[in-house]
Structures are given as C-alpha cells and as structure tokens.
C-alpha cells in the first residue's frame, strides 16, 4: 500500500542489519531450506524455473521506501538476513556470491552446511571498495559457461527476476553484462513464488504473531480511538489516525502485546478512509481530510504489521447509523468473504474462493456484482502480495496446507441514497489473514470482530425510528413529505410512541400467556415450598467412653474446648454435654450478689428447633431441657458464659460450613496453564465475599488457566477456583461514578469462598485512595496541589480500567476458542444510561441493565437477575401522584419468590417501561402492592382456571380501571379463588389473606397468630374508626379531608386508594430483605 516510509531492514530473527551485535545465521534453517530450494528447482525445472542451468539473484541497496522484493525475500528466507548490494548465482555444483568483505565473513560459516546439505561449494567473491567488480563478474560468467559445456550445452540458460530493475552501479553493471553475454535469460519469478507459498512451522509462527499484533492493534487501539472521537465529536484527520496507529504497531507494549519492538514493523502505513472518498486498492493511503462520522457514514480501517519480516493484514468497515442499503450490502459482503475463506482447503483450486464469494453476491444481491472487487485477495508472507497467488476467478493453481492468504473482499462505489454529499457514495472492505488447512481454514485475525453487531454503531436510533414511523404515517395519508425533526419531538409523536409500545405489550401478553400455559401444562412449575429444611449436624460425641473424661478438680462448671464439651456438676458427678446441644446460655445477679447461670438445651419438639439427625435417632430418649446453677463467684460465671458462647459459635460455624459443603455440586479440577500457555493475570485485587479469619486482609491475583480462574493471596489457605463451565454470567464494570472497578461472576452452582457458600464472586480494585487533608480547611479549586492530586486520581482510574479491559479482552479471546463455544461466555458490561435508583434490599442502590441481566454489583448483597428467567414484571404503586413506585419481578419458576425493587423514582418510569419493551419483557402496572405468595400458589394449584380467566391479564390496570365503579360481578379481572375481594361489605369478617401486601407477609403463621392475639390490627382499628365517623355524621366530610386525616393517622403509610376510601386501607409494606 503506500510506500513512503523509512524502514530499517530486519532479519527473520529480529536483528537489525547494521547493528553492532554479531549476526548468527541459523545453519539448521539454512541447510533445510537450501535442500528445499534445490529439490524444487529440480522437480519443476521446466514448469516454473524456465529450464534454467543457473539462477542469479541481485539484491539492490537499502532504500528509504517500504518495498517487497523477491531477492530480499530469498535472502531472509535462506540465511535470515537481507544482504543489500549482493549477487548470488546458484548452480548445480556451486553457489557464487559477489559481496563486500564484511558480508563474506558472515557467509563463510555456510560453506560446510551447503556441502553437507546438497553437495555444492560456496565460492565467495570479495569486492574491494575501490573495485567496480568487473573482474569478479567475469570469473562468475566463466564458471557458468564451464558448467554448461560440461553438460554439452554451448548457451547456458540463466534464470533471473525480470521485474526487479537494477539499482546502484554494481547491479547496473551486472545487468548490462548479463544482457550482453551469450546467456539465454529466463524469468524465474514463478519458481520463487511457488517456493515461498508453503510456509514451514517457523514461518507460520511468525505470521501468527504478526496477525495477533495486527488484530490487537485494531481491537484495542483503533476501535476505542474511533469510538472516543465519535462520542466526543472531535475533529481528527485520517493522517493523524494513521500516525497514531503506526506508533502503536511499532510499540506493542502500549496495548499489552508482549512482542519485542525490534522484531516488529508495519506492512504499510495504516489506512483510514471516510467521507465518500474510498480506494480499495492495496496502494491506497490516508488523506488529510477529517474523519467523517455523520449519519449513514462509512469508515474503512486497514492495518498491516510484520513480525520477523512476515506480513499480516486485517481490514474492517464500520457503519455509522447505517440505512437499509448499507446494512444489506455489508451483510452480503460478510457472507461472501466467509464463503471465500471456507474454500481455502488443501486440494482445492485457488479460483474456487473467488467463485464462492461471487456466487453469494449473485444470489443475495445481484445488483452489487459489478461493484465487487475483481479478486478476493492474495498470498501473503515475506511479501505483502505474493505473485501467482491471486484469489481471482482464473487462477487454477492448487491450494496446499501451509499457504497463507490475505482474503480481502469489498464493494466499490455504492450509492447510499442520502442527501449528505459525504455519505452518498460509499465502499465496503473486509480483510483477514488465513492459513490453508486440510479441513477448516484458520483465521488468524479473528480477534477483531467483523460481526454486524460489533461494527454497526447507532447514535440517533430514536430519531431514525421516529422518521420511519412518520414516513409510514404520511404515506398512509397520501402525503409524500417527511416531517422535520422538530415535529418528531411533538406531543402527538410521543403519544404515537406510547401507542406502539402498548401494541407491542399486547402482543407480548398473548405470547406470554401461551408460553405459560404450555409450561404449566407440562408440570414445569409445581407448587412447592422452596425454603430449605433445617440444618443437620454431625454425630454429637464428646467422649467415646467414660475413661476419656478429664479428672475433675472441683465440682464446678468446666469447658473442655479440645473435645467441645461442657461438664456440669450434677449430684456430685461431672456430666458432659456436647456444646452443640446448648441452645442458649445466660447469667444474671440478684440483690444478694448471687450469680446465676442458665443453660437451655435443644430439645426435640420445641418451636423453631431444627430436627437434627441425633434427635430423630433417639426419639424415645428423655431430654434435659434446661439447667441452672448458683454461684458466689461472679467472675467464674462470666468466664464460663463467655467460653460457652465462643465455643458454641465456633462449632456452629464449622458444622454450618460442613453442611453447606455437603450440598455443593462437585466441580471439575482446575487445569493449570502449562509452559506453552502463560496464564492471563490481573494483580492486586480484593475479593467479595471476603475470606474469613481475624487477620489482616490481603489482596490477591486472579489468573485465567486452561479451564477456569484461580484467585489466590500470599496465604496458602486463601484460594478460590472458578471453573469456566460454572460461570453463568460474567460482568466487567469500570469505575465511572463508583469508587471501584470490578469483575463479577454469577455462577450456576454454589462454591465456597472461605467458609461462605455463594453463587456470586467479585474481584475489584479501589480506584481512589482515601486522602485526609491535615489542615482540615477547605482547599481552593485552583490549588496546584489539589489539581495535581485530582489528575493523579484520574490517571490511576484510567490505568486500572485499562488493565481490567485488557484482561477482559484476552479472556474473551480465550472463550472464543472452539472448546468454549458451547459455554457461550462473554464479559457483559452494564449499560449505565439505562440504570435507575431503587431499594432491592435494605439500602438504596443504582441498578443497571446489561444485555442479558439486571444487576447491582456495588452494594451487597448483589443483585443478578437473568432476563430470560423472568416471566413478567409488575410495576406497583404507579400513579396517584406518587414520587416513587415499586418493581416486582415474577420468575418463570413459580417456586421462586418474587424479587422486589422498592422506592424507584417515578421519573425513571418511562425509561424502565421502554427498556422492558425493547427487551421483550411483558410488564403490568398496578396501584397497590400485591401479595404474590398466595397468587402464585393459586396459579400452580389450578393452572387451567388461571389460563381460562385470561392468564396474567388480571394485572391489566386498564381493564380494572374501566370497571372499577361497577359491581363485583362486573369485574373481569383474575382473582385467585382462595382470596376474597376487598370490595366486600365492611360488616363481613375477612380472615383470608389479602392481595394487598402487609407487614405480616414475610412472617410465619405462628407469629401472625401470636400478634393477632396480642391486640387489634391497624385494619380493625380503622374499621372501628369508620363506624364511629358514620355515627357522628362524619360521612359528610369531603374525601380530601378524610384522606388527609387518614394520612395523618398512619404517618408514613402510603396514600390510600381513592376508589376504596370507605373500606380497609392497605398496610405499609416492608422493604424486602
């Protein structure tokens, strides 16, 4: 492509010619490749080498231009270095080299290897600086003629590279002598092309490293750079983008690519094109025009890099607010390029690749055939374009395993049908570096995604949708004009948008009811209590026999911590009890300074006592319920109580951990990365939940190994393994308005972190240090120290975010390998612009959607809700002029409790409804909070009745509003059969559970009964007050006065439903824990 750059010629092992370090020719490579050269020459002497008796290679002097020559390629391929101003003549029994003294001393080491490999003698002709080399050339010509005469030929055939013009006095004189000699000259370009076409393992390694660098530059530098420029609406020229990208290629450490800079170079100056001026030829260049990112713009980026002189290339096209024409063209191009790549298999003809691409275009978009590039790419290696390996329709050469191609396909000069002159004409280009394999070609640049979702950007999606809707609307009315953007923001258009959302929600309701009916009919959600059973503990054995009891010193309470036992003096004998049998222990002191200690034991049959294995095993036994002791020694009593509580807590914690571990799903074993695969590492991280223990908390490192992650600190017992197969969702949340940057893993099955059982594991770094000003006074905003400190904090945050981003990118690449495709893993990033505040647990938090989940990852406990597991969403307490509303999430598994997010600001309502609608989640709105446990129980008990009554439409507030003033018989909404309506008479006793959620909903039945026995409920008190008001004639009061009086009575209670002012009021719902 563009050729205006000063390049240092490099060797294949990375050393720069002219460096002070001595050169070292790899003799093994030299011997092996010299054999390949002579074998190829002998096998294809007439077909590819022009029946030549000798082959002459003249390498020109170094140049400022970036160029690819077969003579230079042969030098690098054979000896690992480029030898400028050197002439090599290959003959059957000799190799003649005309060069300087320094080069001759370097090549002297190959004499023995050449003799051993192919039986040829290497003859070095050293040219002094003052000599023009004529005499040495004549001696080489005499050797060529002598070989020809020995073979019975008077006119020797000499092969040369005809397309390389001689440069410099030495090569010009050599070319003149060849022309005037009696030699028959023949072009051997095709022979060298075929020789270089198939790469060995060392060459393929160099190409792979070059491709990794190329795709990493595009993905980690170019794409973020373009996104930042477009997002911040900066004016940046194509040439400046080219310069920045070139610097990044030459310094791989900038993008965390661990390749030595001295081994790296560019294939061509990076190409950036936009604004309607496109050139898809390899010689294209970046002009000085600014990057164009208007609506319907197209941006083409092409990047090529070399590693140890081996080339790679990648090109991508980015679409900005693409219209239908551009989107279709790109999809067709992508499909055509993938078809071409799929044909690069050993044994196929080269032409089938282009024919496959052409067939796709002819079938899917025949109107674009004339715009398709005439080739689908070229061979690539030491040369950027290897002659003879063009992927066109006429090339009938056979593909072989180990060939490498730059598969480049594009559409030139398409029309976008826009009014902007910069976007009317556009082109598309895709290019990848591909290795020919026996079965499936290997795409080396797959790290840089070309999927539509990754290259198509939409920055004014709402405006485009509005324009389309207005266009359709105007056409239906017979109006040919399109409304302006100002009109799109009118009230009528907002109403149209709401109407479209309602129509979509109605369709979702129909689909959801059908889906729920099928699931319930299949028994997919049977009614069951999902609360866990009581925890069991192991066999409680303090002492195996009487002889193990410690000898009593005094008849006083003793605590045996080793055996986890408490010994009580009972009737003159020390009786042991395992500490796990103790339910509670307490002490108190009376007025006579007598101290009492009271121990209550776990006894089967008492309320709230878990039925452990031992109580079930000895059901016929007599149990001691409690025991009390009196003592004058208050210090001993206090010490005994403290020791018993501490020991009991330790045993309970251990048994609880043991019970939790017993329920864990067995995970596969972590396969540590070997020597070939260095683990991907991120250091200095904290973990949540944290490890237990009282010691100082330590940071650790997370490493990605062959099949999972391992987090570990410097302590050997602080280690957590997270298997890839156990990861359900992975999140990366950079610090923006938060104080931490984090990685979060939501798992399929629980794991143990320390002694905690969890499904959520988080690794994070605090991006800001807590700094305390010693002076205590308020510092000026213009204080240089303050400004410098803020800059340091910004730099630290950006560095941490970049480190996390690089880790995430590398793990995503690892997950993209074929063995992990079935897991469908990729780091998801929360979409802050869609977030909203709410109370999911105790405290307010910022809840953010992602592409597949609804998450809150800062405050604990974390919130991770998979969108695909949601049945419906009910928005409660909507309307009535309230400042907040609640969101209830009902899961497809009716055995799960619903999830509530309380106190969401009403300003977020429209945004949430729009997000739910775009993610195809059905939502309903209600004026009150519903009690979901009896509702779900009713549904699972009688699913047929639920479906017959309209499914979830009983939640439809529009239906209930239209019939709110009618009688109970006219209500068509769904009411569970075991729950009475609130519209009944005030005189009737209503003992059933209310659909309106109350304070008692989350408590056990026994607690509810005990509270009801203690006194009257708020509902009963309100009913009595209502009766009293009627007797006193208070019914004449206005509804506003009554509502204000009730609000005053209830304090923080929610406003009552105006439709039910005469009935019972809902109780204040509690925040869910």
From TrEMBL:
Domain Histone chaperone RTT106/FACT complex subunit SPT16-like middle: 836-926
Boundaries of every FACT complex subunit SPT16 N-terminal lobe domain copy: 25-192
Chief localisation class: nucleus
Gene Ontology cellular component list: FACT complex
Biased composition range(s): Polar residues: 479-490
Described function: Component of the FACT complex, a general chromatin factor that acts to reorganize nucleosomes. The FACT complex is involved in multiple processes that require DNA as a template such as mRNA elongation, DNA replication and DNA repair. During transcription elongation the FACT complex acts as a histone chaperone that both destabilizes and restores nucleosomal structure.
Oligomeric form and interacting partners: Component of the FACT complex.
Protein name, per record: FACT complex subunit
């Amino acid at each position: 492509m563009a050729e205006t750059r000063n390049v240092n010629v490099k060797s294949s092992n990375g050393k720069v010619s002219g460096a002070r370090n001595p050169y070292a020719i790899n003799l093994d490579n030299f011997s092996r490749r010299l054999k390949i050269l002579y074998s190829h020459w002998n096998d294809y002497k007439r077909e590819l080498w022009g029946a030549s008796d000798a082959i002459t290679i003249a390498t020109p002097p170094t140049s400022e231009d970036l160029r690819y020559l077969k003579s230079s390629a042969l030098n690098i391929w054979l000896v690992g270095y480029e030898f400028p101003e050197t002439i090599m003549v290959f003959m059957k029994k000799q190799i003649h080299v005309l060069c300087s003294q320094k080069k001759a001393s370097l090549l002297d080491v190959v004499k023995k290897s050449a003799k051993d490999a192919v039986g040829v003698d290497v003859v070095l002709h050293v040219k002094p600086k003052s000599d023009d080399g004529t005499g040495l050339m004549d001696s080489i010509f005499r050797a060529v003629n002598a070989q020809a005469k020995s073979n019975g030929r008077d006119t020797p055939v000499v092969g040369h590279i005809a397309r390389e013009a001689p440069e410099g006095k030495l090569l010009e004189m050599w070319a003149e002598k060849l022309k005037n000699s009696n030699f028959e000259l023949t072009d051997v370009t095709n022979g060298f092309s075929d020789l270089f076409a198939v790469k060995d393992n060392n060459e393929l390694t160099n190409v792979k490293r070059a491709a990794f660098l190329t795709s990493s530059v595009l993905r980690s530098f170019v794409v973020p750079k373009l996104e930042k420029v477009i997002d911040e609406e900066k004016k940046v020229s194509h040439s400046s983008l080219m310069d920045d990208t070139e610097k990044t290629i030459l310094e791989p450490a900038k993008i965390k690519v661990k390749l030595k800079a001295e081994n790296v170079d560019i294939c061509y100056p990076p190409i950036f094109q936009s604004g309607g001026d496109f050139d898809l030829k390899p010689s294209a260049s970046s002009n000085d025009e600014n990057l164009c990112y208007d609506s319907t713009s197209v941006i083409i980026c092409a990047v090529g890099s070399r590693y140890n002189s081996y080339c790679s290339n990648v090109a991508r096209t980015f679409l900005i607010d693409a219209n239908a024409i551009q989107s279709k063209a790109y999809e067709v191009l992508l499909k055509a390029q993938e078809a071409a790549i799929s044909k690069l298999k050993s044994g196929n003809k080269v032409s089938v690749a282009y024919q496959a691409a052409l067939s796709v275009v002819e079938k899917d978009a025949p109107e674009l055939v004339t715009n398709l590039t005439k080739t689908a790419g070229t061979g690539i290696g030491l040369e950027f374009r290897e002659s003879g390996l063009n992927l066109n329709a006429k090339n009938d050469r056979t593909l072989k395993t180990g060939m490498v191609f730059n598969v480049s396909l594009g559409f030139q000069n398409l029309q976008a049908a826009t009014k902007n002159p910069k976007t009317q004409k556009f082109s598309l280009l895709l290019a990848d570096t591909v290795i020919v394999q026996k079965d499936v070609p290997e795409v080396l640049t797959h790290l840089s995604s070309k999927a539509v979702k990754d290259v198509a950007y939409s920055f004014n999606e709402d405006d485009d949708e509005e324009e389309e809707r207005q266009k359709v609307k105007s056409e239906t009315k017979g109006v040919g004009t399109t409304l302006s953007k100002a009109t799109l923001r009118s009230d009528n258009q907002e109403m149209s948008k709401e109407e479209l959302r309602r129509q979509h929600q109605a369709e979702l309701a129909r689909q959801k009811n059908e889906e729920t009916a099928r699931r319930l009919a299949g028994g997919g959600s049977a009614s069951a209590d999902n609360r866990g059973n009581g925890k069991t503990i192991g066999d409680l054995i303090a002492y195996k026999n009487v002889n193990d009891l410690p000898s009593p010193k005094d008849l006083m309470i003793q605590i045996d911590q080793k055996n986890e036992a408490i010994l009580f003096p009972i009737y003159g004998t020390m009786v042991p009890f395992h500490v796990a049998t103790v339910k509670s222990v307490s002490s108190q002191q009376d007025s006579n300074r007598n101290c009492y200690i009271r121990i209550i034991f776990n006894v089967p049959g008492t309320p709230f006592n878990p039925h452990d294995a031992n109580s079930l095993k000895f059901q016929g036994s007599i149990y001691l319920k409690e025991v009390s002791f009196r003592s004058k020694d208050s210090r001993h009593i206090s010490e005994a109580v403290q020791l018993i509580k501490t020991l009991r807590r330790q045993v309970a914690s251990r048994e609880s951990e043991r019970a939790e571990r017993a329920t864990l799903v067995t995970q596969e074993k972590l396969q540590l990365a070997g020597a070939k695969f260095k683990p991907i590492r991120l250091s200095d991280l904290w973990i949540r939940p944290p490890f237990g223990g009282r010691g100082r908390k330590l940071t650790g490192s997370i490493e990605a190994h062959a099949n999972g992650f391992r987090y570990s600190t410097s302590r050997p017992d602080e280690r957590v393994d997270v298997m890839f197969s156990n990861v359900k969702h992975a999140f990366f949340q950079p610090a923006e308005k938060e104080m931490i940057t984090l990685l979060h893993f939501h798992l399929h099955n629980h794991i143990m972190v320390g002694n905690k059982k969890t499904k959520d594991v988080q690794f994070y770094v605090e991006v800001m240090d807590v700094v305390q000003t010693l002076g205590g006074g308020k510092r000026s905003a213009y204080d240089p120290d303050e400004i410098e400190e803020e800059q340091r904090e910004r730099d630290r945050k950006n560095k941490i975010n970049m480190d996390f981003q690089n880790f995430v990118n590398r793990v995503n690449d690892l997950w993209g390998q074929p063995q992990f495709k079935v897991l469908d893993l990729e780091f998801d990033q929360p979409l802050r612009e869609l977030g909203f505040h709410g109370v999911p647990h105790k405290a307010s938090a910022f809840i953010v959607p992602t592409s597949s989940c609804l998450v809150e990852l800062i405050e604990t406990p974390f919130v991770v809700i998979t969108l695909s597991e949601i049945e419906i969403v009910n928005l409660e307490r909507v309307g009535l002029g309230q400042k907040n509303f609640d969101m209830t999430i009902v899961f497809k598994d009716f055995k799960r409790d619903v999830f509530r997010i309380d106190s969401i600001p009403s300003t977020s309502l429209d945004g949430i409804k729009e997000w739910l609608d775009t993610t195809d989640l059905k939502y309903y709105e209600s004026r009150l909070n519903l009690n979901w446990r009896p509702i779900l129980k009713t549904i699972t008990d009688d699913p047929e009745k639920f479906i017959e009554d309209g499914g979830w439409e009983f939640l439809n507030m529009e239906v209930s509003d239209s019939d709110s003033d009618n009688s109970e018989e006219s209500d068509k909404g769904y009411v569970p059969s075991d729950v009475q309506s609130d519209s009944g008479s005030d005189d009737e006793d209503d003992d059933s559970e209310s659909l309106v959620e109350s304070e008692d909903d989350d408590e056990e039945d026994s607690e509810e009964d005990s509270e009801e026995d203690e006194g009257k409920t708020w509902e009963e008190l309100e009913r009595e007050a209502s009766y009293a008001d009627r007797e006193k004639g208070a019914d004449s009061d206005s509804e506003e006065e009554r509502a204000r009086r009730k609000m005053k009575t209830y304090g923080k209670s929610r406003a009552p439903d105006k439709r039910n002012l005469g009935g019972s009021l809902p109780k204040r719902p509690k925040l869910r824990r």
